[in-house]
Fold these 3 entries.
Entry 1:
Amino acid sequence: MTFTVKNPIPGFEDVRTVEITELDDFFVKLTTKERDEGKDQVSLTLVNPYALRPNYDFVMPTALQQVLGIDGKKPIRVYNVVILDRTIENSGVNFLAPIICNMEDKTVGQVVLDAAKYPNYNQFEKIGNLVKKNTFEVKQPILGFEDITKVEIVPFDKFFSTMKVIESGKEHAGTSFTLINPYTLRQDYNFEVPTPYQVLLDLDERSEWRVYNIVILNKTIDKSVVNFIAPVLCNLKNNFMAQVVLDPKKYPNYGAAEKISDFIEK
């Protein structure tokens, strides 16, 4: 797809249009097209940042939204530049300068974030270190899948992730689950982690952890349902995970099969 550059890419300020080509589910190639005479074409490798860190988030400057024609209704995609090394594991990602694409108007621009406001984002973070954070040892069995002992959670975007089985018995080898970030549907989603689970996962006030919920897919996303009563909890410090079964008497507003459409329409 060809995009018009509305906000210059630092170092390539003369580029007016670029071609973005998907390489696989995570990586794309950006190739310069229209640029000043005598300048050679240049290609950059980009990555979907949510495949590496699902909590990647930033405030898009209002001026950039206006320049790119982003109004909250048009679909956008976010990419980050990959600094290639001999191997993907040793290659790095620049999380401080995301590239924003307006997929409807075919406009693109890069924004340089203020490092002081985003101290957890760097110009070079090794992909290998980030990928390791996505593999988890199952400390408490997933309901109905008690033979699964290790999984990999791969974010698709800021909403959905895929949980792939790495180690299990023959029955569930190759099994995968669709997960969702519950806070994208309901801001009030909250629960107290029972003490046995805190001990099992070695959680404390300094732990960095993520919460997911399993999605039971239907023909369309809006008809698919979410299990809010049994969240999947991941401790990023030690890469332990468990499915926590909450007491329905304490959490009467959380169901095991709530339609996504009920929250999208609110």
Entry 2:
Amino acid sequence: MELKQKLKELRTSRRLTQEEVAEALGVSAQTVSKWERGLLSLDISLLPKIALLYRCSIDSLFDMSRLWSNEHQREFEARVHELHAKRDWEGVYQACITEIELNPDTYKNYPDVMLHVYRKKLYDNGRVERMISLADYAEKHCQSSDIRNEIYKIMLQICAESDDEHIKSKADYYYKKLPSLRQSREIYAKCVMTGDEYRSQLKKNLIQLVDMAECTVRQLISPDMPLDVRLEYYKKAAALYEIVLDNKYAGFFDPPLLTDYCEIAAIYIRLGQRGKADEYIERIVTAIERHMNGSREKSELLYSTLLPNATPTEKIIASLFRYMINKPELDEYKAELSELQKSYENFIAKKEATQCQKNN
């Protein structure tokens, strides 16, 4: 896109008149008009003011996409991966913030840094206030409702866990920003979509509902419940995924089901029903083997739909292994699970090596 078109698009998207832009920049309305028609070259000394007015980077005015190419993204991801390996959580935070400052209009980076703050509990007021500021900016300027809703969900959790009453009060604000199921626009997809686009949207709607329902059922479970009642709740939660999974490979959506299986097996052990526990451990083993064997029998519904900002499946399963192996109720299966863990780690190492070779 040429600069003249970019300037007009940015102005209209901010709902500003040429007169308002001229006043903000200290030039005449005729000058702004000539910029947008390509009749007058832009004074480069005004670039910082223009970028500030339109809330964009100077680079984006000139569509310098090469600076934000796939290579740049790979370098950034590699840097963050290296910092994660060192468990340098502050470094990860600073790297993400720097990336956002360099290109504030790449809104997909916002949920990533917010999720990092939430997971690592980096809850000092300065950081949380910074996250609130980013959320406010995205709310005003991000056009993607999916990204905005993802931001609302994460910020809701961050603010709810704050010790600062002012910050804590923001949780209710973000909660009310999330669309309720009955008001969600997605149920009206058939009014604006047809064919494959409509079918893809229906799949997305379904998995989001299943994911929410499974999570909701698990949240109903409390430690003071009788074991048999907790067992039934976990089985109901697992059943929600089983209905659409149909015993096939589901990628990112396998771990929550496997977590339910883990809890079910542990409860059966406590109830003295080793045979039933064996059954659910076997289900876990089978599902993870599907990942290692590259199963071609993929769940059409689950595998074809990814949630925004989904954490890589390998990371979730690695964490699940640690959880299962350290769970006292599953001590009888520790040797079996440890052996499976080693196989899985070897599988991931080979996969990463292959990917590295392709990139080189």
Entry 3:
Amino acid sequence: MSNNLALKKGLNVPLDGAAAPEVIRRVTPDVVAVKPTDFKGFLPRLLVKEGDAVLAGSPVMAHKQNPEILLTSPVSGTVQQIVRGEKRKLLAVLVKASGKQEAVDFGAKAPATDADVRALLLKSGLWGALIQRPYGVMADPSLTPKAIFVSSFSTAPLAPNEDFVLGDALGDIQAGADALGKIAPVHVSIRRENSASTPFHKLENVTLHEVSGPHPAGNVGVQISHISPIMKGETVWTVSLLHLAAIGHLINTGKLELTRKVAVTGPAATHNAYVQCLPGTPVSEITHVMPEVRVIGGDALTGETLGKDGYLGFFQNQLTLLHEGYEREWFGWAKPFRPKVHSSSWCYFSWLTPSKKYQMDTNLHGGPRAFVETKCFEYVTPMDIFPIYLIKACLAGDIEKMEQFGIYEVLPEDLALCDYVDPSKNEIQAIIQKGIDLMIKEMA
């Protein structure tokens, strides 16, 4: 087990539009959405109906197969609407905020045992913050992982600065780490470049790891692969620093508080800064969206398209706004000089200006085509796997090959850069997710 990781492979995507370290607005939403679709593996059963009054922390829905797992309301108010999609699939519960935040009192007391921690997280709705690997599904309360991993930084394009976002929540983060430590050993990774200045190096009762390198060095999956690789039959849990702070706040105050600083980023954003709001807040209340702009919940590589009428997700603390790339470029790749285009290889002259940021859009500059076997995937994947063979195994639906080439170690986000550098324009993350879904179906 290494406490110092120096990763060489990867790529920092030079996207323009980072958020300035300032909170420009605090949003008190009129309506908040609780979305079961944010939680992979969660099968919702409604516990409320339209017109019911709820408090912050009141249960809204439960897992059909594990009724002890609850999703709770982040605000106090009244259930305004049950939103359903095709085949009556439950998409969201809309809660109209009362204006005065009232919360369920879970008791401000540090849990003494593993069972106490689990019970508190299940009752409060924060159990959904725990992600189980392999497969990236909601953690199973009946299992005990070999370890719990937290990454205190992100290297994704325009990612929020965690020191700015959560630097003042060290007490809550410590309380959350102490609680989760009663379930399994907790590992926290910090960025080596600022390991002395980040407040998170002061965390106690955890194993700290210093990590350096380009994206995806900040991905918790990449860190796990170097610290304690997941073998067949093993289970680990991960939790974001944001939700670790929420767990600690719940322990310290007895109240569910999910308010967060959301980074509004991207070249199409009208004001690149932070907005304080709750998960489930309408995008239209967080930022103004111009026509022909794609709103992404999360970063540009792995985020979810929300649309201007969407709602911020439970796991999201970033919005990325990109112009829709409808225009076709004269001569395209055949141009000898393209100063506005970034290349991950030496095809253009972007390598001469490594610090330049680019006004990127959603244009693919081409369409999917036959797989071209190059080493470009290996250059951006700092894990002990063969990505090209894993991708082909997922395409073929070959479970034995998927196991052989590392399906237990990855989630789509860990191979997001393969999407970016792929000359064949294939949706690598979708292919990996298809393989994971097959594993869940066949190995359950």
